[in-house]
Every structure is written in C-alpha cells, then in structure tokens.
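Reopening this ticket.

The earlier resolution said the output was attached, but the attachment link was broken on my side. Pasting everything inline this time so it's all in one place.
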Amino acid sequence: MPPQPPPPRPNSRRRRRQQARAEQAARPIGKPTARRPRQLQPKRPVWQSPTAIVTALAVIATVILVISLNLRSSPSTPTALVVPANLVSGSIPRDGATLGSSSAPVKVDAWEDYQCPYCQVWTIQWEPHIVTDFVATGTVRYQFHDYAFLGSGHNPDESLQAAVAAQCASDQHKFWDYHDWLYANQNPNGENKGWFTRDKLDAIAVKVGLDQAGFDTCLADPAKAAAVQAEQAAGSALGINGTPSIFVNDKAVTLSTYDALATLIRSLAPASPSAPAASPSPAASGASAPP
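Inline output:
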C-alpha cells in the first residue's frame, strides 16, 4: 500500500488555532513545577506605627505644657489673702489718699509703688508710728502719692494695675483700707511675676467691702490709669527716681531710723507741752530702714 500523504494543513488561521489546541490537549500531562510558597511579611507592632508614635508624642507634649503652666502660675496664687496687721483707724480724718488735719503744721509726703518691697517695710513698720504719733495728734498731714514705675515695660503692668485699683477704692472712700491690703499681700518672690492679677484685686475689693460693679467699671476707665501716670510724672519732676521717697515739708529726707525722722518732725512743729511720748520705734524693734 503506497504511503499516505500527510493530512493537509488547515488552510485558515482559525482552523490552525483549533488544531494546535487539539494537539496540546493530546500531549501527556507532565508533573507540575513546584513553586515556593509566598510568605507574608510579618506585621509591625502597633506601638511602632507612625500614627501611634505621632499621637504619643503629641500627648506627651500636652502633658509637659500643662505641667509647665501649672508650675509657672502656682507660686503667684496664695491660698488666702493676708489680713493687714495695722489698718488705719477709722477715727483718723481722711480725704482720699490724705490722712490728718488740713491745718497740721507738718506735711509728710510718701511716694510709693505697691510692688516695692521697701515700700512695704515703710507701710507696715514706719507708717503706723507716723499716724499714731503725729497724724492722730494733729501734727502731721500725711499724703500718699503713686510712683508706679516697677511694672513699666511689663505686660501686665502690675504696679499700674494695683495703683488704679487703690484709686478706684478711693472713689468709694476706702483708699487706706485697700492700700493696706495691697501691701499686706505683696508678692514675697519679687516684682512682675503675675501677682496683682485682676482676680486678686477683685478679691481685695471684696475684703474691703467695695461695690464690685462700680469697682470693676472704674478699673476699666482709662482716665484712672492716666491719672496715676500723671502723678508719677509729677514725682519725676521733683527728682524722684526710686521708692519709697519721703518728703517732709516738701524736702526729701534720707531715712535712717524712725527716731531720727520723728525728731525732724518735732523740730518743725510748734512746741506742745501736752504732746504724747513717741511709740516704740521700728528701729528699736529690729526693723530695717528703707534705703
């Protein structure tokens, strides 16, 4: 039998594709090639997540800020106000920031700043003796003047704020009470540390018995601050550049001991055989003299 010719090749692309698939299907199935299993990357711990790290840092920064603010503000806020030891007696004649009779032969002027520590010494240790020995007897007319300079350039200006508060108390005839409360509650840690805050000034107003609404309205009046600043300018014109500055009959005096000051005042007053003996001087009790 003659050899048979090979079957004819498909004469179309479609037939050729079909035949190729048929031949492929007829081939024996080989062993599949083994593949390495795909490994999953290990998960990163939650605490190493960028989001978790950023969140933790933000929380830590907030805690540090809160602690810092608390440490900064806590020394400036006492738990209670200190009651003045020597409030000016209600029997002493007064007119605003002035004590004593207008006809007194000797005039004593005190230029002070409510933040000044030496002014506190003067007010607590010297001033009560002046009032008892000379103002109450009609010898001295004593006047307080604002020289609020220690807070200049600071925000807030605590010297100015305290002075304005005292002048607002004066509008309600309570200047000397407020004045004494301010000095009794002066910051023991120094000036310009956020001590004479609005809350503290209001708290003193309550202690003194002021009408709170009227007091707060007065504090907001720019004319009060302008008046305090004008008085300071008048003091500077007199040559004042520090506090306390004490003038006796318009002449600046150097403070050494209370006895020396009392002797000066007596030398300027008419002799009075009935004049009482002077009270024990602050120098004799160990008190220091302001510079």
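Reporter confirms the inline version is readable. Residues 105-268 form a domain with the Glutaredoxin fold (CATH 3.40.30.10). The longest helix spans residues 50-73.
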